[in-house]
Amino acid sequence: MFTVRRAGPYDGDVLGEIHAAAWEAAYAPFFDPGFAADGVRSRRTRWHERVGQADTPILLAEHEGRPLALTAFRASAPRSASAPVTSGRTAACRGRRGVTGSGRRRICAGAERAGADWMPG
Question: In the CATH hierarchy, which fold is given to the domain comprising 1-74?
Fold first, then answer.
């Protein structure tokens, strides 16, 4: 049975492991190995300070008591009603360290089509 609950301060390690595993599977292949390893490592530790913040609810999904997924959300920054939600290119396309070769080309092409100004992860 699946359950979803609000994460608590004691869930920082679990949240970090879920985020690191998901980021590694989805994005690490696009980066050089050293940058990817740093990215995985940083995702393991960033959740301890986020969990419990009033402006960032974090939900943790479990299957038979085993943590499997998370979601975190908060209000976006104020903007005018006519402003686009995203615009421009990803940080990768602006020379972000670690993005190389065909991975960079694929990320930038997708960002160009989507009009995104954020870097996944």
Answer: Aminopeptidase (3.40.630)
